[in-house]
Amino acid sequence: MLKSGRVDSGEDELIRRIADGDRAAFQSMYRIYFPRLARFLDRMVRNTPLIEEIVNDTMLVVWQKAHTFDRSCKVSTWVFGIAYRQGLKAVNRVDEPVESDFESQPGDASQEPEQAALALRLRQDVGRALDALPLEQRVVVSLTYYHDMAYQEIAEAMNCPVNTVKTRMFHARQRLRGLLSAHMEEMS
Q1: Which of 63, 80, 139, 166 has the highest Cβ tally under 10 A?
Q2: Nearest alpha-carbon partner for 159 in 108, 86, 100
Q3: Domains and CATH numbers, the chain
Q4: Cβ(84)–Cβ(154) under 8 Å?
Q5: Does the predicted TM-score (pTM) go above 0.85?
């Protein structure tokens, strides 16, 4: 058991091996985290080449700093915290309009056309509503609902108090409720 009361995982072993310079362990970690980090960062930057650069920068930090991982949190919390900070640096460096390719994503082909159209519309509306949130709120929502992180883990990743995470989520939910109310009225 670790300080946080959780059991050691395979990712803990990978980090230990990475700290020892094991390139195969790093490659495994990279394959595990690339898609997860790409989905997370897409909510922050919406720029595919930049997302890949941020993921690579994040994983470089993991490679260089694996020996500093103190096991006081989950490996995923540590890695997502690095990605969050790298993402903030990139967002501050690049001042471009945020674009979404949400409209190009197809609906589930197994659904009826009308249901598929409604589902696509809902995804588009949710995507636009999330994009309208301030960055910190968008990150909290993304980590909570798309990456199943608890508030404590998010606070550790974002290097802020848990109450700040809760406040950001409260305001994000309020804003999303307002932004999505038009869509919900159409569905009724």
Answers
A1: 80
A2: 86
A3: 10-93 (1.10.1740.10), 108-187 (1.10.10.10)
A4: no
A5: no
